[in-house]
Amino acid sequence: MNFLCSFFNKTTVFITIIASEKLILNYPLYINTDTITIKKTNKMNQKNISTYLFLLFLLPILSFTSCDKDSNEQLSLHQVENNEIELYYGSIGGVTIVGGDGIYSFTCESPLLKAEMTHSNYILFEPLGVGEARVRISDSSGDSYILKVKMNYKSEKIVVGKLGVTVVGDNMTIGDQKELKEKALATIPVKVGGGYKFTYTESDEKEVTKGVVLIYPEKVDAASIKGTFERKMVKNESGGYSSYIYTLHYKDVNRTFIFMEYTESVTRSTSAFRAVQFAEDLKEQFKTAYPNVEQVYTSQVIESIVVE
To answer: Which of 3, 114, 204, 214 could form a disulfide with 224 if both were Cys (CB 3.0 to 4.6 A apart)?
Structure first.
């Protein structure tokens, strides 16, 4: 009986036992050949065969166990690019850990970020301020991953694409209606192409929130007027939110805009879509000069909203 040992690479051994010129066992072993050596022999008794058979079945088990760590995927985060995420102040977010050996922990020393391991592989974040924080995520083998968390105030940049005025008054003359429309139109603080940038210094998910507003009279991102604002969500009869009321304060002026659906169809390119607007009720402002007016409000139809 012959016991042959063929080496294919550093960690693979192919053992063949031959008895009376017949192949009785052909078995691959994945072992470290630097530390284990099996010598070829021409004479093997039954005891030696039993010993080698024991090694034959034991060594793969030891080998597979030693390779577990090497087979782990690299520690990383699911759908996170460039080791960086961005969160808005007042909101929450998190990351899912993948790879490594599955036993995870983290450290974060920044007072700007609250972090909690809510699941075995998920970390929940809540910004407590604005700035940057670094989170070290590790597994039990010592592998680690550094995550940068950027925290900013959420802002919305709004471009106005159309202006309009609605006047209702059955007892008003046509001349008075036309005159009132011109006066109401002149009260709108922006032109077509102008707009607003609302930066929330509190969570925008709150029913009542506030922040800083930039008003662009001529063109968005050009010269601006700085002020503050409050925003309130308005519920409908079914309990959902149907509109938002924005109160702007700037240059000793208070304006109240209702963010709501624009009921007329608007065409953009070749397709019609339902638009939204800032509507401002001006009846109280003009009822003394125009006692027969029943309704007068301006419309700033919104062309685009970009969240930054």
So the answer is: 214
- Cα torsion for 82, 151, 117, 106, to the nearest 10°? 60
pTM over 0.90: no
The rounded distance, in Å, linking the Cα atoms of 94 and 81 is: 14
Note down the domain range covering 56.
2-71
Pairing of strands 154-168, 195-200: antiparallel
What one-letter code names the amino acid at 253?
A: V
The CA-based angle 240-244-246, given to 5 degrees, is: 160
Residues 181 and 273 in one domain: yes
Residues 117 and 181 placed together within one structural domain of the fold = no
For the stretch 124-139, pLDDT in tens is: 999 999 999 999 999 9
Summarize pLDDT for 24-35 with one digit per residue, the tens: 444 444 444 444
Q: CA 89 → CA 56, 95, 118, 221, 273, distances in Å?
A: 61, 17, 20, 23, 32
159 plus 303 within the same structural domain: yes
Partnered with residue 307 across adjacent β-strands are: 156
Q: What is the pLDDT of residue 42?
A: 46
Query: Which two tokens mark 152?
Result: 């900013």
Is residue 19 a contact partner of residue 4, using CB atoms and an 8 Å limit? no
CA atoms of 269 and 290, how far apart (whole Å): 39
CA distances from 269 to 164, 266, 273 (A): 20, 10, 10
Q: What is the DSSP string of 195-238?
A: EEEEEESS-TTSSEEEEEEEEESSSTTSS-EEEEEEEEEEE-TT
